[in-house]
Amino acid sequence: MALACHDLRTPLATIHGFARTIPRFAARHQPTERYVELIAAASAQMAETIDELWLAARIESGGLNPERDESDTLELARSAAARLSGQAETDGEGGVVVVDAERATHAIVAFAHCALRHGGLDRIVLRASGNDVEIEPVTASAALVLSGEEMRDLGAAVAFKLVPALGGSTVLRDTAFVVSFAGSRSPSQSSR
Q1: How far is CA 17 from CA 25, 35, 39, in A?
Q2: Which of 37, 77, 104, 131 is positioned for an S-S bond with 126, CB 3.0–4.6 A?
Q3: 87-126: buried (b, 16+ CB within 10 Å) or exposed (e) per residue?
Q4: Stretch 121-149: mean pLDDT, rounded?
């Protein structure tokens, strides 16, 4: 799976490159420009999908070696909110966790996108609370996907594999989806 994902990226990059270059050489007709924009957007979406599949393959094969360091859950929530294009706000008081911050943020974004898309929402809250980042509200339809009952979201499906690989866990709690990460190392563990 990882090899196939890698091999697909080269032709996809070529398509994407030509889609971005055509407008410079083609006559400036509005419909043509719009079609090229759609090609570019679709190829970018394909690249994201391939990246998700590659990440899942790396997790499944045991090839994911996350670099864990101390991070603050409020900062993870803020980083995720920044990637959600104004569809999320943050609040709460974070806690120090030991996690690969980039990948943890990736998982939070995937779960948040799932809550937005399958919940029919325009906006959500990412609340930091100690070792947890809570995503809310979670509607009944989004809860079916976020509980794992229905696998209708690739990003969430990969994030369900990613969070345990990072030493974390997830749980659906009432109208919130909670992503928990391992707490900070004790001073005796840090000195080893």
Answers
A1: 13, 14, 10
A2: 77
A3: ebebebebbebbbbbebbbbbbbbbbbbbbbbbebeebbb
A4: 96
